[in-house]
Design brief:
Helix 2 runs antiparallel to helix 3. The protein has 4 helices and no strands.
C-alpha cells in the first residue's frame, strides 16, 4: 500500500492467511498436527492424566486432523486447481472447536489430579 508521501507500507499477513498458507494443499503439514495431537495424548495418558483417563480426549482432534489431511490430499490429487475452498468454512471451525474442547478437558483433568 502506498501512502501520500510515496512511502510503502507493508501489512503483516493475518493469522488466517498464515494458517491457509501452511495448511491448504499441504496434507503433510496437517498430518504433522495430527501426530502432535497424538503425541500429547500419549504423553498425558502415560503421565499426568493416567489417574483421570476420562479427561484425556486429545485423540479426538487427532483423528479429525488426520481425516482433514486425507481430505486435503484427495482435493490436491483430484482438483489441484481448486482455489476457492468453501469446504474449509466447515472443516476449520469444527477442528478448531474440537481441539479447544479436548485441550480444555485435558486441562480440567490435569487440574483435578493436582488438587485432590
Amino acid at each position: 500500500m502506498r501512502l501520500a508521501g510515496g512511502s510503502v507500507v507493508r501489512c503483516n499477513p493475518g493469522m488466517l492467511e498464515v494458517m491457509s498458507r501452511w495448511l491448504v494443499q499441504q496434507p503433510g503439514h496437517i498430518a504433522l498436527v495430527a501426530a502432535g495431537n497424538l503425541l500429547v495424548w500419549a504423553l498425558c495418558r502415560a503421565t499426568v492424566l493416567r489417574a483421570a483417563a476420562g479427561y484425556n480426549r486429545l485423540w479426538v482432534p487427532a483423528v479429525l486432523w488426520l481425516a482433514y489431511a486425507t481430505w486435503e490430499w484427495l482435493v490436491l490429487v483430484r482438483t489441484p486447481e481448486a482455489n476457492i475452498r468453501v469446504d474449509l468454512l466447515l472443516i476449520w471451525p469444527v477442528i478448531a472447536l474440537t481441539t479447544l474442547w479436548a485441550l480444555g478437558r485435558a486441562a480440567m483433568g490435569w487440574w483435578k489430579t493436582r488438587h485432590r
